[in-house]
Design brief:
globular, D-Maltodextrin-Binding Protein, domain 2, about 475 residues, 3 domains, disordered C terminus, six-stranded mixed β-sheet, five-stranded mixed β-sheet, alpha+beta, 18 strands
């Protein structure tokens, strides 16, 4: 048969291409990440750095001869990532509930559809978002900001938290409080120069700025009781065409989660190396009993968070689309990934526990079972964080270590009421009869002292290394 005859036969449908020819396509997998939004690490940074996606991509069936063109692009926020997804330059991307909802609305406006396919990390309480003030500010609570100006990245998950917190105060925007837009990068400089009275932000900035010493956290998102999450989205057309690739991406995310759960210090250091976000901050989120919980399941609170973000974006006139959360969130791909790795999705859906800590008390050698007064100490030069069942034991160890010339990288404490993981240097403490407890705010510490007795003090005072913020109990 001549070439001309073959072409005629092919057009007539009587001749098929060789089997391998149709399968030898090069498939693009273009993924947008937010590396500095560190709770997205299992959906981006770790997969890329450890080359986990390559491990799970299909090479059988219709993918038998496929070649993969994996492309990674990093962003500092969700909006530009969404722009490139809508423009067809990216296939998958990770972002928070608010920008994720905007992603869905932007796709709808373009006559297309995106799917929110998994949660990566979040908090049903709302921790992760927060409000900070300059280090030298006398402000200790949100209530004290009445009549002042707060900056926030507009249309972010932190913006949603701030609006909810303002409403809870009974304030009116532009009357009782002024809210202006400001990116995290600009806010950092503004806080250092005392050019802004307060700033609200998302992961990790409400913790990063205090850790770097130029801000204090006065409000945590959990106080607004506004659940928050970061997760991954996919272009629906891409998912329909390549469902096995989407599932492979999620299997890689599950593997990344397993790896960082096993060695959180090691991979917090890797995140720090890639992002410049200090490992001490990364461990605050990704270590056991972390500030947020890595969780791939669509808990009702997370579904509600997306629904609330859609409604809020409409009220803010950031979109006029009314996304149907029931079709926008699609858990079929993550369920498939769970099934392939032998995990029970429905069981995890009911599990609200933080990343567990299985450890022995560094002072007594006994297994820690009560985490209400847990304090963790990361000593410079030591690869693993030390765990202490009580603040008394931890602080005694810190004093001895420093006396011996050792440097303490960071000390973590846990809020006695909520279990929220805190930087001890920024926490408040109540000490009474060998019972020292940590608290996020001075107000909650004072309330505890009033009920249980004891004195309220800052970290320096309770550690005995100076400081004058020791207060008589009320």
């Amino acid at each position: 048969m001549t070439l001309q005859q073959k072409l005629i036969a092919l057009l007539a449908g009587t001749l098929s291409l060789p089997l391998g020819a149709a399968q030898a396509e090069t498939i693009r997998i273009a993924i947008g990440t937010q590396d500095t939004t560190i709770n997205c690490a299992t959906g981006g940074l770790l997969i890329r750095e450890l080359k986990l996606l390559e491990k799970y991509l299909p090479h059988d069936g219709k993918y038998k001869d496929a070649q993969y063109d994996i492309q990674w692009k990093n962003f500092t926020s969700g909006a530009p990532l969404t722009n490139e997804m809508v423009a067809g330059k990216l296939d998958l991307g990770s972002m928070a509930d608010f920008p994720g909802s905007f992603n869905g609305a932007a796709f709808e406006k373009a006559g297309r559809k995106s799917l929110f396919i998994t949660v990566l990390s979040g908090s049903v309480q709302g921790s992760g978002n927060g409000i900070v003030v300059p280090k030298s500010s006398p402000v200790q609570s949100l209530a004290e900001l009445k009549g002042k100006t707060i900056s926030v990245p507009f249309a972010s998950t932190a913006h949603g938290m701030l609006l909810r917190a303002i409403k809870a105060q009974g304030w009116e925007l532009d009357k009782d409080i002024t809210v202006v837009t400001q990116s995290p990068e600009v806010a950092g400089s503004a806080l250092q120069g005392n050019k802004i009275e307060a700033h609200a932000d998302f992961v990790p900035f409400a913790e990063l700025f205090p850790h770097r010493g130029f801000a204090r956290k006065i409000f945590d998102g959990s106080q607004a009781q506004a659940p928050t999450l970061h997760g991954s989205l996919v272009d629906a057309d891409y998912a329909k065409k390549y469902p096995e690739i989407v599932t492979a991406f999620l299997r890689a995310a599950i593997e990344a989660d397993r790896i960082i759960a096993a060695e959180p210090e090691k991979y917090s250091e890797l995140i720090a190396k890639v992002t410049g976000i200090e490992a001490e901050v990364d461990y605050l989120f990704h270590g056991p009993l972390g500030l947020q919980t890595r969780d791939f399941t669509w808990k009702p609170e997370y579904r509600q968070a997306v629904k609330t973000s859609i409604e809020t974006l409409r009220l803010m006139k950031r979109t006029d689309n009314d996304l149907d959360v029931n079709t926008f969130i699609d858990d079929s791909y993550i369920r498939s990934a769970f099934k392939q790795v032998g995990q029970d999705y429905d069981a995890q859906l009911k599990n609200y526990a933080r990343q567990p800590l299985v450890a022995k008390d560094a002072a007594t050698g006994k297994t820690i079972t009560d985490f209400s007064r847990l304090v963790q100490v990361w000593v410079a030069g030591e690869p693993l964080v030390r765990h202490y069942g009580t603040a008394e034991a931890a602080f005694a160890a810190v004093r001895k270590l420093e006396k011996d010339g050792k440097k303490i990288r960071v000390v973590y404490a846990h809020d006695r009421n909520s279990g929220l993981k805190l930087f001890a240097a920024d926490a408040w403490f109540v000490s009474a009869k060998n019972d020292t407890s940590a608290f996020l705010s001075r107000a909650s510490a004072e309330a505890w002292a009033k009920q249980h007795g004891g004195k309220v003090a800052d970290y320096a005072a309770v550690l005995g290394t100076g400081g004058d913020r020791q207060l008589a109990s009320k």
